[in-house]
């Protein structure tokens, strides 16, 4: 018997739930090819950031304006309108995307990363034109303004999602963090605003303090499987309650992690840390282990397993909420003092 690992995500049929999350591994087409060969079912490119786009368009504008109005012969500036041969970060991104799309057989998802609706969102359309199979919008925002209310913060997300939705015809997945007062309601409203998929969750990189140098240090620490529980819970809660694909990111390190997520209701599991630590071969190992486990436990397909332990399907739905919290604390095996 052979098991069917296929899954559907954002309306696409993927060969398995194993998707490469945005990370520096996706910066070059040669690297992307290795990931595909090792078994990636789709790749999400590293993000193009709002700050990069705004910076680049400012630079282009400044270059075009240089000399404008000073001399008669250059009333509109010395550079031609479409600054020929100009390659900035955003242009390079689109070139990488187009080349990846030409070279790979698997879907290539472009990632746009920002925090406010604005002209930069226009790049969503340019990503679609460059061949993106779908778009992942990462909204990474720290609500640090004491004047800004929760409602205003949520509005910011929804406006941004709606703006991107209006800009493109391809599927849009929205990657967010878990820090909303009502995560379930926010998930529903993100979908109403136009998200075809939710990517749960953004991992917030917390700054540290170096007590010797008296400096704030921003360094990235890779995740472990222990961090899987947060996306696992919310995917289980949201499965069947929002009309959107569900992707898990943060803490995917083993075949068992992926199987748990699929049982909770995930359509795909995305990985960055495991791939950064172990390289593309990690994908092959996890895919083979998943297939072997499923065969041993008599599952025919991922679709059959999907959502079998979501909150809606679970024999113990309270386990995903407060009841489980109290029980866990009260029954903790305490050492005798
Ligand atoms: C070095 C590094 C770079 C990353 N760059 C991006 C990025 O450009 N855009 C994005 O949405 N996420 C980015 N991420 C986040 C990952 O895509 C992923 O969501 C996160 O690391 C959690 O998954 P993990 O536990 O598999 O690492 C990055 C992560 C790492 C470690």
Question: Describe it for me?
Answer:
β7, α6 and β8 form a beta-alpha-beta unit. The chain has helices spanning 29-38, 50-65, 89-103, 123-129, 150-167, 183-192, 229-238, 255-264, 273-278, 281-296, 302-305, 322-330, and strands at 7-9, 12-14, 18-20, 42-49, 108-114, 134-139, 172-176, 197-200, 208-210, 215-217, 245-249, 268-271. Residues 76-86 have low confidence and may be disordered. It is built from 12 helices and 12 strands. It is α/β, with parallel strands linked by helices. It has one domain: Aldolase class I (TIM Barrel, Alpha-Beta Barrel). The N and C termini lie far apart (54 Å). The structure holds flavin mononucleotide. Residues 21-24, 46-47, 111, 113, 138, 175, 203, 220, 222-223, 249-252, 271-274, 276 line the site of flavin mononucleotide.
Distance between the termini: 54 Å
Distinct helical segment count: 12
**Domain count:** 1
Beta-strand content: 15-25%
Q: How are the strands ordered across the major sheet?
A: 3-4-5-6-7-8-11-12
Instruction: Return Rg in Å.
Output: 22 Å
Main sheet specs: 8 strands, parallel, barrel
Count all strands and give the number. Answer: 12
CATH superfamily: Aldolase class I
CATH architecture: Alpha-Beta Barrel
Principal-axes geometry comes out as globular
The mean pLDDT is 91
Order of helices and strands: EEEHEHHEHEHEHEEEHEHEHHHH
Provide the descriptors you would attach to this structure in a database record.
8-stranded parallel β-barrel, TIM Barrel, 39% helix, 16% strand, alpha/beta, 12 helices
């Amino acid at each position: 018997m052979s098991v069917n690992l296929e899954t559907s995500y954002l309306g696409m049929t993927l060969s398995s739930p194993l998707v490469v999350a945005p990370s520096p591994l996706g910066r070059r087409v040669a690297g992307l090819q290795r990931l595909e060969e090792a078994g990636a079912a789709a790749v999400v490119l590293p993000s193009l950031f709002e700050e990069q786009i705004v910076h680049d368009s400012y630079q282009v504008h400044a270059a075009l304006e240089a000399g404008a109005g000073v001399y008669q012969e250059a009333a509109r500036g010395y550079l031609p309108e479409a600054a020929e041969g100009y390659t900035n970060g955003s242009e390079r991104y689109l070139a990488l995307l187009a080349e990846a799309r030409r070279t790979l057989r698997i879907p290539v998802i472009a990632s746009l990363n920002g925090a406010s609706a604005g002209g930069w969102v226009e790049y969503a359309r340019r990503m679609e034109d460059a061949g993106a199979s779908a778009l992942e919008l990462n909204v990474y925002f720290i609500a640090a303004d004491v004047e800004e209310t929760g409602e205003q913060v949520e509005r910011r997300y929804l406006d941004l999602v709606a703006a991107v939705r209006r800009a493109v015809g391809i599927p849009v997945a929205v990657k967010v963090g878990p820090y909303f007062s009502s995560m379930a309601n926010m998930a529903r409203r993100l979908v109403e605003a136009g998200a075809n998929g939710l990517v749960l969750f953004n991992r917030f990189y917390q700054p540290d303090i170096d007590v010797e140098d008296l400096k704030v240090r921003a360094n990235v620490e890779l995740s472990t499987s222990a961090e899987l529980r947060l996306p696992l819970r919310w995917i289980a809660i949201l499965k069947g309650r929002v009309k959107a694909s569900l992707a898990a990111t943060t803490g995917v390190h083993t075949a068992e992690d992926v199987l748990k997520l699929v049982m909770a209701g995930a359509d795909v599991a995305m990985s960055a840390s495991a791939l950064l630590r172990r390289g593309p071969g990690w994908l092959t190992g996890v895919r083979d282990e998943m297939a072997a486990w499923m065969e041993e436990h008599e599952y025919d397909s991922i679709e059959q397993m999907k959502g079998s332990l979501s909150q809606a399907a679970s024999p113990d739905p309270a386990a995903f909420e407060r009841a489980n919290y109290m029980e866990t604390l009260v029954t903790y095996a305490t050492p005798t003092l």
